[in-house]
Amino acid sequence: MITAPSPVLTKKNYLNEAHSLKSWLLTKDHKRIGILYLISVTFFFMLGGLYAAMIRLELMTPAGDLLESNTYNKVFTMHGVLMVFLFLIPSIPAVLGNFLLPLMIGAKDVAFPRLNLLSYYVYLAGGLFIFTSLILGGVDTGWTFYTPFSTSYSNGYVLTTGLGIFIAGFSSILTGLNFIVTIHRMRAPGLTWFRLPLFVWAHYATSMIQILGTPVVAVTLFLVVLERGLHIGFFDPAYGGDPVLFQHMFWFYSHPAVYIMILPSMGVVSEIISTFSSKKPFGYTFIAFSSLAIAVFGFLVWGHHLYVASQSVYAGMVFSILTYIVAIPSAIKIFNWLATMYKGSVRITTPMLYAFGFMGLFTIGGLTGLFLASIGLDVHLTDTYFVVAHFHYVMVGGAIMGFLGGIHFWWPKITGRMYPEGWSKLSAIMVFCGFNLTFFPQFLVGYMGMPRRYHVYPPEFQVFNVLSTAGAGLLGVGYFVPFIYLLWSLKYGKLAGDNPWGATGLEWKTSSPPIHQNFEVTPVVTQEAYTYTTEEVAHIG
Amino acid sequence: MEPRSFQLFPEAASNFAGQVDGLYAFLVLTSAFFSLIIAFFTVFFAIKYRRKDNTIPTPIDEHGIGGMILEITWSVIPLGLSMVMFGWGAVIFFTESRPPADAMNVYVTGKQWMWKIQHQEGAREINELHIPVDRDIRLTMTSEDVIHDFFVPAFRTKSDVLPGKYTTEWFRPTKIGAYHIFCAEYCGTKHSGMIGVVYVMSQADYNDWLAKGSGEGSMAEQGQALFNQLGCGNCHPSTVQRTNGRAPNLAGIYGTTVDLKDGSRVKVDEAYIRESVLNPEGRIVAGYDNIMPTFKGLMTEDGLLKLVEYVKSLGPANGAPMPAVPGTVDLNPKQTQLKAGGTAAQAGKK
Description:
The complex is a heterodimer. By secondary structure, chain A is mostly helical. Chain A has a single domain (21-538), classed as Cytochrome c oxidase-like, subunit I domain (Cytochrome C Oxidase, Chain A, Up-down Bundle). Chain A has helices at 21-25, 30-58, 69-104, 113-136, 149-153, 158-185, 198-230, 243-275, 284-297, 313-341, 350-373, 375-381, 385-415, 421-448, 462-492, 534-538. In chain A, helix 4 packs antiparallel against helix 6 and helix 7 packs parallel to helix 9 (284-297). The mean pLDDT of chain A is 93. Chain B folds into 2 domains: 10-42 and 99-214, Cupredoxins -  blue copper proteins (Immunoglobulin-like); 219-331, Cytochrome c-like domain (Cytochrome Bc1 Complex, Chain D, domain 2), CATH 1.10.760. Chain B is built from 8 helices and 12 strands. Chain B has helices at residues 15-48, 65-96, 203-212, 219-229, 270-278, 301-314, 334-337, 341-349; strands at residues 104-111, 114-119, 124-126, 128-132, 137-143, 148-152, 157-161, 167-171, 177-183, 195-201, 257-259, 265-267. In chain B, the strands form 3 sheets. A 5-stranded mixed beta sheet of chain B has the order 3-2-1-5-8, covered by helices on one side. A 5-stranded mixed beta sheet of chain B has the order 4-10-9-6-7. In chain B, a hairpin with a 4-residue loop joins strand 2 and strand 3. In chain B, helix 4 (219-229) crosses helix 6 and helix 5 crosses helix 6 (301-314). The chains are: A mainly alpha, B alpha+beta. Chains A and B meet through helix 3, helix 5, helix 9, helix 10 and helix 11 of A and helix 1, helix 2, strand 7 and strand 9 of B.
């Protein structure tokens, strides 16, 4: 690939304008806050990954020989809590969203830079609570905290962990609020709503869910804390409560939360596929509105987690049909991405490989969601490994493929340097293969009836579990290699130049890495997004 | 349950297994079809339209007629297919959630970390469930502590088992054999040890098994003993045409709908009987005062189920006619309520 003629690193940019620790820890620059988030979520991802490794090692044999039952339960709980609340939910919005939203809309920063810094520290405080409970001895409720187990029976650190999630939730709410105001108020002149990049639309929809959904889970966990700490009856029948009420409240947030993880990822994929096809996304408006449709309908499907939890038959049917309806906007996106490549000018780069990986894994994750939406089938499948496989395909296959794709795609912008092409392609392929080997066998063993969260299991399920553990090994390497070469590239990577991909967004119109104020002059937008010109297409060869 | 060779379907041993497997096969085929189409076009477009020169591809106008047709096509076809999946799944679920009226009752109590099972005839077992083949079986289930879930993969059905509430699950085993019972709702430390075995037996073998019995009489008889021991009969008459003004007569009350003090009505079912023992001041029958003490903490869930069985035995459920001779209600309901089990239970008493 020929890059633009000898790119130079911007002399003064957001990275080198000040070097003190204080200039990082008290920064109000959205780009630096994005980097702070990147470091923190990477830490929690690695910790969560460590727990995943312990789970997979334990499950290689049917007997509970590596960990004790109690330890195993804590391990899968901490894996879930860390990954969901401290990695997946903040991953794309807080890292890439923070870094890119203002750049993409031609703004100097988000609407409330101080609030942005506050959300980071609120997140960190929540993380600290969760980390503390982990050090003290962990919690064994599963990340779902089902009552009355969590309120009256568990002997883990439910209060600390619950408070940690409660606190981290406020970070999510504040970030969502910040983004919505930023998108409404800070767009550059001429940047009308339908000229916005799809990444921005996706984050707008995500922010809506963060603002409307997160308070509910915060309240729910607070009630758990009240019941556990003060024996005020909400959920435990022994105190006159209703255990299923908890599930309604929990999933009212936690189902839409899946869309907090996946919508930003879809935004990333839209950008990548358009850029590497040098073509405006087919069905721009359909993709944009399907994000909003997912955000709205996503709030109406929580009851599909409760088909067997004594919910009424007719309620189950309503939730089932609504779940099928929410699947349609996702299907629309997949077909629109395919149509974008049609007669495009396609380049197979690392971000593009991740985008393909996203499409593959999200398709399987989405289609297996249809299995679980179908009530008669869900009665057999729910709480088995089929569910585990399904949500890993969506949340890990989907969200992390998007996250890694986005990190690679914008790495030149964030750091001003390129990552090594060969290694990155190799690791993208390893991630894809390792992921499928890990989780596809879990669909099969799930239909066979292996329940989730089982420490010990009957021997006939072993062959699937051994495959799964082997895949997890490959997946782990696939995740670790980028960590090494991305760090390496900070110093040794080729200089990237302002627009190494020939992309069209405003973020590519400024220097790499961008200056503190993002743009020398506030850009004026005069055309639709994704208008590729000869200049952009030519200089990347 | 001897280990078998590699397989992708669990044993199919109930009336639901074929239906669920059929729907599963339909979904697998549909999903495979769409996955392959998407994978094919991704690879095909990536190769066919790979960058050859620096010309800018012409964007397609999705608002044109061709674009709209495409958008509508790929929205409507998945919608149509998904409605088939919805309907098919809903029909199966509807059957799953409606136990036949004449199903054989078995009572299940879950507790950390075991399954306690009581048969109407009095037999009790732990982590095992013996049932006859080709009979509709209805499980009435509750939990003593946290939420559990009674899952038999070979029957393709499960239901949560909740504290403070009765849930039901039914199936008709179609194949003699031994199958896994799993607790499918995470319930704490030994969750994965809360497993058991369903033994589906021929009717004759089942009768023999029942005949070994517990020696404690039927559940209704044990319930009656509990009823007397707790002095319930001091206020609650249990034979027809007796009233004392203190509490409702329990004879014949099961399955009826009674008027409550607050003007609403309630069906006297398992849940209402349980509630009335534990929380008597909650929903009082019209015409009576709030004088009954609570039995919360004094009763186990197993005991409650026995009381429920006893009250059931006093009453002609489902609107069946009242006994002919007043005052001589048969306290032993087996002849009317049970078909095959009755003789076996009597045999068990001897």
